[in-house]
Amino acid sequence: MQVLKGVYVFGGVGYDSNIYLIDGEIIIDTGTGDYFPEIKNEIISMGFDPAEIHTIVNTHSHFDHSGGCKKFRDWLKGKAIIAIHGNDRSALEHGETLAEMFGTTPKVVTVDVSLSDKDVLRTKHFNLEVIHTPGHTPGSVCLYDKKKKVLFSGDTLFEDGFGRTDYPGGSDEEMIRSLKRLSRLDAEYLLPGHGNPKIGGIKFLIKQILAGSLKAKHH
Questions:
Q1: What is the pTM of this model?
Q2: Which residues have a Cβ under 8 Å from the Cβ of 201 and sit 6 or more positions away?
Q3: How large is the angle between the packed helices 202-210 and 172-183, nearest 10 degrees?
Q4: Where are the domains of the chain?
Q5: N or C terminus of the chain: which is more exposed, having fewer CB within 10 Å?
Q6: CATH says 2-214 is which class?
Q7: Cα separation of 10 and 7, whole Å?
Q8: How confident is the model at residue 213 (pLDDT cuts 50, 70, 90)?
Q9: pLDDT per residue as tens digits for the range 178-193
């Protein structure tokens, strides 16, 4: 489903994260991989050329976001690079992705690019700045297009709360700092790792969270 011009979401089924396809060039998160055949077929049926997908970005290492990486890479014949923040790279490459929580075994995958804060990932119509937002995991990131006011928030921020901090590597203090940083962005469209998009009211949402009126979600 197209949620914004050039942005398509494949809504998470079961434990799966949302999967976003940007301009037919960048995939943000890959879910568990359980529904990979359906997503692959949908991408093809929508008329996209798989050869144009050049980057697979993981907002963090947890299995519900990264379990499908290898299947996507194999489908794309190894031509799409796999990227994740440097602080979550080791977890992804060594299978420390909490896969056991989802009743399965880790899918080890080689990372091609370690992302850093303020890196920019480009497509035909988007310039996505990497924003390091630790708290859910040490290497959690959001992607932000300042001109289009679009924020892909992974498991840092949802339409009705924020990501859990009680998993290994999580931190309440870092989550608070990350949310404060997001509150300073001029974002109109929130596209989270789970749940529905949110249009408008993002600064107020974060203000509510920081005031303690909204709680962590189980993702």
A1: 0.97
A2: none
A3: 150
A4: 2-214
A5: N
A6: alpha beta
A7: 10
A8: confident
A9: 999 999 999 999 999 9
